[in-house]
UniProtKB/TrEMBL annotation:
UniProt cross-references to CDD domains, sorted A to Z: fer2
Ranges in a coiled coil: none
InterPro entries linked to this entry: 2Fe-2S_ferredoxin-like_sf (IPR036010), 2Fe-2S_ferredoxin-type (IPR001041), 2Fe2S_fd_BS (IPR006058), Beta-grasp_dom_sf (IPR012675)
UniProt source species: Thalassotalea castellviae
Domain 2Fe-2S ferredoxin-type: 3-87
UniProt keyword list: Ubiquinone
PROSITE patterns from the UniProt entry: 2FE2S_FER_1, 2FE2S_FER_2
Protein name per Swiss-Prot or TrEMBL: Class I ribonucleotide reductase maintenance protein YfaE
Amino acid sequence: MNNTFIITVEEQNINFDPNDKTLLNNLEKNNVEVHYHCRDGFCGACRVTLAEGKIHYPNGEPLAFVGENEILPCCCIPASNIRLIIE
């Protein structure tokens, strides 16, 4: 799987670094604030809207509820270029 994707969030383009392991780690490294309480897909506090693109959950689907077009960056990685909406 190609992991060199662009993340667009808050009018900023960020290169996903596969060494970061998760989207949340990558966003934090690039000073994008995302609220969270865990890093394993259990609580759902880091939920953001996936406006464009595709993601992948390498360790399986999260246990927390995610609505349509919502993702949990704590446990996913991009599978294409993506655009996020963080509220």
